[in-house]
Amino acid sequence: MKKISIIYWSNGGNVEVLANAIAKGAENNGAEVTIKHVYDALIEDVTNADAVAFGSPSMDNNRIEQREMEPFINEFKLLPNNQKKLVLFGSYGWDDGKFMVDWVHRMKDYDFNVVGSIAVKESPSEAELSEAIKLGEELTK
To answer: What's the maximum distance between 2 C-alpha atoms anywhere in the chain?
Structure first.
């Protein structure tokens, strides 16, 4: 059984909705899923998982949340991530979602195997929730 960790930061709930959809997809494929808000997460939640999903809204000039998510993500810069499968997800409002493009590049630089990402404007549509479920399924392959 694959172990999947989903770690996110959410304020308005849109990123949490995506996290739950990704978890559903992974569970549909028989994975053991751990889902945590970043303030409850440990580095071991990532290092001990077979695959991971990180989520954040776009904030502060097209960047991920800076007080909790950013420091957590920075922990992986110097760790051996060994092409661990990763999905990135998030939401945006006032900008164009460019934060996701930047985040994908950054995580590839950190030696993660980014197998998918989704950034939704405001709250996810039914089609976007279906896409998030598929991303969860992809983490189990």
So the answer is: 40
Q: What band does 50 get if pLDDT is binned at 50, 70 and 90?
A: very high
User: How far is residue 113's CA from residue 110's CA, in Å, rounded to a whole number?
Assistant: 9
Residue 125's closest CA among 35, 13, 17? 17
Q: What is the pTM of this model?
A: 0.97
Which conformational region is residue 110 in: left (phi greater than 0), alpha (psi within -120 to 50 degrees), or beta?
Answer: alpha
Ramachandran region of residue 117, left (φ > 0), alpha (ψ -120 to 50) or beta? Answer: beta
**What secondary structure letter does DSSP report for 78?**
S
Residue 114 CA to residue 88 CA, distance in Å, equals 8
